[in-house]
Amino acid sequence: MFSDKKEKNVASEPGSAQNRINEGTKLKGDISSTGFFRIDGVVEGNVKTPSKVVLGKSGVIIGTLSCENADIEGRFEGNLQVSGTLSLRSTAIIEGDVIVGKLAVEPGATMNASCVMQDGKPKNATANLPISENSKVHPFDRQQRIKKAAVETDLDD
């Protein structure tokens, strides 16, 4: 009636286990995990997880961070790729290149970085598509009015 055997689904979802790098710990190299991270020490290298990363006040990452969500209170230098929400607390210091889905910044945070916000779609995916005759054109569409005016001006010349 009751079975002692339970199947575990290992690679399908991010793990719920927390990985901690405590204050006073310094790591050099690449780190990859399915669980989320709490970093209060120093990491020099690449950190990759499909889950959340929390960088504490004393935490430092120098390198690349790729994750779903990030909550940063410490210092980050390098390339930061967050597919979900990046939350910068008032003590955060960010330097480098940032790619995020959503950005939340508390007053006092320092961000000396280039920042690109993406919604998961390729950049300019629809900009180069031709307008078909069957597509609906809204009469108040500004881009359509500008194109029409340009065509009429060219015809008048």
From TrEMBL:
Quote the biased-composition stretches of kind Basic and acidic residues, using this chain's numbering: 1-10
Return the InterPro entries for the record. BacA/B
Q: Which Pfam families match?
A: Bactofilin
Q: Which residue ranges are recorded for the region named Disordered?
A: 1-26, 138-157
Q: Which superkingdom heads the taxonomic lineage of this protein's source? A: Bacteria
Q: Which family does it belong to?
A: Belongs to the bactofilin family.
What name does this protein carry? Cell shape determination protein CcmA
The species this protein belongs to is Aequorivita soesokkakensis
Q: What is the lineage of its organism?
A: Bacteria, Pseudomonadati, Bacteroidota, Flavobacteriia, Flavobacteriales
